[in-house]
């Protein structure tokens, strides 16, 4: 009985701390990206190439999470949905 209360209390604390951990890890990611960007730009890399490389890396990192975590919530790709996506791509 005591173990269940301790587990519940620990779970409650972890749920409350989760947003803070996420924000701290996000700040470390921003700092790392800033350092890598400054070093790359000082060594002569083009701004456009740096933006392209960073978008490619982020896509490679985030895409698997989107496919795995939202596998069952995604609607099927029908022709009307595809045409809406294309139209939004052209309109911006």
What does this protein look like?
By secondary structure, the protein is mostly helical. Helices cover 84% and strands 0% of the residues. It has 3 helices and no strands. It has helices spanning 2-42, 47-69, 79-91. The longest helix is centred in the first third of the chain and has 41 residues, at 2-42. The chain is flat, with a radius of gyration of 21 Å. The model has no long low-confidence stretch (mean pLDDT 89).
Please name the defining characteristics of this protein.
92 residues, mainly alpha, 0% strand
Summary of the model, kept short:
The chain has 92 residues and is mostly helical.
Q: What is the topology?
A:
Blueprint: H1 2-42, H2 47-69, H3 79-91
- The helical percent reads over 70%
How many alpha or pi helices?
Answer: 3
Structural class by helix and strand composition: mainly alpha
H/E topology pattern: HHH
**Mean pLDDT figure:** 89
Number of strands: 0
Strand content: under 5%
Largest sheet: none
Distance between the termini: 58 Å
Supply Rg: 21 Å
């Amino acid at each position: 009985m005591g173990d269940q209360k301790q587990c519940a209390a620990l779970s409650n604390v972890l749920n409350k701390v989760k947003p803070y951990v996420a924000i701290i890890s996000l700040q470390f990611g921003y700092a790392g990206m800033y350092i890598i960007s400054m070093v790359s730009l000082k060594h002569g890399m083009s701004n456009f190439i740096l933006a392209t490389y960073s978008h490619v890396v982020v896509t490679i990192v985030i895409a698997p999470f989107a496919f795995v975590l939202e596998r069952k919530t995604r609607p099927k790709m029908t022709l009307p949905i595809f045409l809406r996506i294309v139209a939004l791509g052209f309109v911006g």
